[in-house]
Amino acid sequence: MTLPDGRRLAYQAIGAQGSPAALVLHGTPGSSRQLAGLDRPARDRGVALIVPDRAGYGGSGSDPSRTIASSARDLGELIRHLGLDGCAVVGLSGGGPTALACGVLLAGQVTAVATVGSVAPLVPRSPLLPTDRILIKTARRSQAAARLVFAAALHAGRTRPERTLRRFATLLAEPDARLLRENDDVRTGFLDDLRNPSATAARATARDFWLFARRWDVDIADMAVPAHIWHGTADRNVPVAHARVIAATCPAARLHIVEGGGHMLLSQLDQIIEGLTPNQG
């Protein structure tokens, strides 16, 4: 679709067609290609999923002035375009802040939100959070410097996807590494994403990390719909403390801690979907 400012917003429809749909937001970096592994389990459960490419990723146009709030408003345009008023929004990892913003800004269009392994607000700083990692520190100082780092990483993924995925797996919790080894659909989706980064993916990734490191332009304490915060205790990408900070900041949040769970939590898909149905409020 074309957004009001002329940018392109690309999306995929996966899972069961014709049923009430939920929006699912990919992480950082990534694109809708990364979530191809959700197609089969969603079809098995009779769930339709709309998976947009966030600005600058996949087929969506770049937005150099993007904020967390403006990303949510882009999704409001997509919801109107597809006639999906009353849908739920799920944000994975770096897509979590945008999903939370949807619950504040799009309450008339969105019935519930969920996050899986989401980044929490880093400003103001909660004492629960561990020390920032080098990528956050780099992006806080300079988006340009962060962009160079991510451009190199994306180049490696495009030219040596299998090797890059193997190296990535060594950084993950065992449940996530096992998922990449044993689930062909998930593995294929990640490899496809590595092989096909957009020309603006490094810029978009640097922008994400820069936004994470600053005060968000939406207050999740004003959440107007039910919010379900899912996080695994073994998550190495985003420590579980982030989920506790989100829950402590957002009175509408219900915290779901998965003991021994990793970052992706695909095995919890049934519970995540159940929590987003209207009668679960």
Give an account of the 3D structure.
- The chain has 281 residues and is an alpha/beta fold.
- It has eleven helices and seven strands.
- The chain has a seven-stranded mixed beta sheet with strand order 1-3-2-4-5-6-7.
- Helix 6 crosses helix 8.
- It is globular, with a radius of gyration of 17 Å.
- The protein starts with 10 loop residues before the first strand and ends in a 6-residue tail after the last helix.
- The mean pLDDT is 95.
Largest sheet: 7 strands, mixed
Q: Give the SSE string.
A: EEHEHEHEHHHHHHEHEH
Q: How many DSSP helices?
A: 11
What value does the average pLDDT take? 95
Assembly status: single chain
Beta fraction: 5-15%
Going across the major beta sheet, what is the strand order? 1-3-2-4-5-6-7
Key features of this structure:
281 residues, 41% helix, 11 helices, single chain, 14% strand, alpha/beta
What is the gist of this entry?
The protein has 281 residues and is of the alpha/beta class. The chain has helices at 39-44, 68-82, 96-105, 134-141, 143-159, 161-170, 174-182, 184-195, 201-212, 241-249, 269-275, and strands at 11-15, 21-25, 48-52, 87-92, 110-116, 227-232, 253-258. Helix content is 41%, strand content 14%.
Task: Outline the fold blueprint.
Layout lengths: L10 E5 L5 E5 L13 H6 L3 E5 L15 H15 L4 E6 L3 H10 L4 E7 L17 H8 L1 H17 L1 H10 L3 H9 L1 H12 L5 H12 L14 E6 L8 H9 L3 E6 L10 H7 L6
Parallel strand pairs: 2-3, 2-4, 4-5, 5-6, 6-7
Antiparallel strand pairs: 1-3
Helix pairs in contact: 2-3, 4-5, 4-9, 5-6, 5-9, 6-8, 7-8
